[in-house]
Amino acid sequence: METIIELDDVGLRYPSGTVALAGASLRLRAGEFVTLLGPSGCGKSTVLRLAAGLERASSGTVRAPADGLSFVFQEPTLMPWASVFDNVWLPLRLAGSSREQARPQVLDMLATVGLSAFADAYPAELSGGMRMRASIARALLARPRVLLMDEPFAALDEITRERLNDDLLGWARDLGLSTLFVTHSVFEAAYLSQRVLVMSGRPGRVCAEVMIDEPWPREAGLRGSARYARLCAQLSGALREAAEAGA
Description:
Blueprint (H helix, E strand, L loop, with lengths): L2 E11 L5 E11 L3 E5 L6 H9 L6 E5 L5 E4 L11 H11 L4 H14 L15 H14 L4 E5 L7 H18 L2 E6 L2 H7 L2 E5 L6 E6 L14 H20 L2
Parallel strand pairs: 3-7, 3-8, 5-6, 6-7
Antiparallel strand pairs: 1-2, 1-4, 8-9
């Protein structure tokens, strides 16, 4: 299977002297859904920023595509003065497509994420979950091969979060995405992922890999199963060990 993103023995030291990563290595293969799980401040977001070209490693090697990559941040990062349509249109607008030229694609994507009725609404008029849907729609409109997601559902209530988890798996499958997802929730990691990479405390590195041997995408019924409870317990134990390793 083709490797899409690879970090090989990567280190990152900031000018202040803070070491964010040391010896971090990972691979994301074509069509995979891989989650980075780790304690706060361990460098999970830094790995995404390196993959996106927003940071440069101090040592080691980062291999990632120069294009065909979209980033969804923890906050929706919508323009408050623009409608949902205009926010989602932005990547096509920057690529030279007029509003009318982009209309079919934008409306199709809004339908995909369940926001057809809110094309003319403004971000302040939307719930937190709806704002995140708009942000994801904007990321997907560019038809990326790779989707990087930095705790996009962390601020949402549990019911909204579970619904978006289910929808995300459907989008990843239907669009053939390779997804690198960051969370500190063992429940989210167990449900979404094919592989979970557990990171140590700072300086961060991948110290464990857990394979999630369940059919993917997941059925919602998995959440109530004993298998899911065991997976969450396994990840919780790995997370505790990782936090202690970095202490």
